[in-house]
Amino acid sequence: MTDLRIAYHPIYAHPLPEGHRFPMLKYELIPEQLLHEGTISPENLFSPGVVSEEVILWTHNKDYWADLRDLRLSPKDQRRIGFPLDARLVEREQRIAQGTIDACGYARQHGIAFNVAGGTHHAGSNWGEGFCMLNDQAVAANYLLHNKISQSILIVDLDVHQGNGTAQIFENEPRVFTFSMHGANNFPYRKETSDLDIPLADGTTGDEFLSILKETLPKLIAQQKPDFVFYLSGVDVLATDKLGKLALTKDECRERDRLVLQACKDHHIPVEVSMGGGYSPHIKDIVDAHCNTFRLAVELFF
Fold it and tell me: Start and end of every Histone deacetylase domain (predicted)?
């Protein structure tokens, strides 16, 4: 068994009303596939608890959290999130956030750790949006800062959608540098301002995407000198994605992951990986592309 540690809880695949079940299915299938092929064993998986209210409030507005916790969000706010609110979904978000916090500790021990879910980067300090209610990587970053575990954090968001919530949360926090490379004409249509945004045209190829990343990431690491990296590895950059508008192949998506993970390993920077989005029509394409990130981590780190 490797020392790779992966946050997973059955609630990650919490069933939703018809029309919302498909995006959740991957959270059950990713660990099943990794176990089936022998990339991981059951001992690699850990089940996170529920993040405390105190920790949530280091990131999210008190009134917003109270309305979310007590299921009082308005119909308009629920529509912005994208599905009807219930207590199990709130618990799911709390367990995802705690899973990312726990994964940070394992990453500091072993170089890298994962959350099977997470990447809820559209949640801002006082709003939920785009299937995101609590911003797991922002909550975890603030946990590291609050406990003086980290002093300089780099968030590398390569999901096809801008990390607008993350950008807003850290807009006045110089210890966290937010980098988002995303589709210019994609959701969210009202963008926030990250420390570095690289908007990409529709149809951007893998060659162009990788060239930009190769040029940008080493400079950021040299400039920011992060002591911790959060990586959001959405696979909605694939050409097969229904919502993505970019044109990467699975191999190019894997090379994207390699560039990020290899840079972290080479610079001895612990990295936590949350999975983000993926909406290809065939679930096997989504699961395989996500599993490639885990396979690569085992190859590089263990």
Answer: 23-292
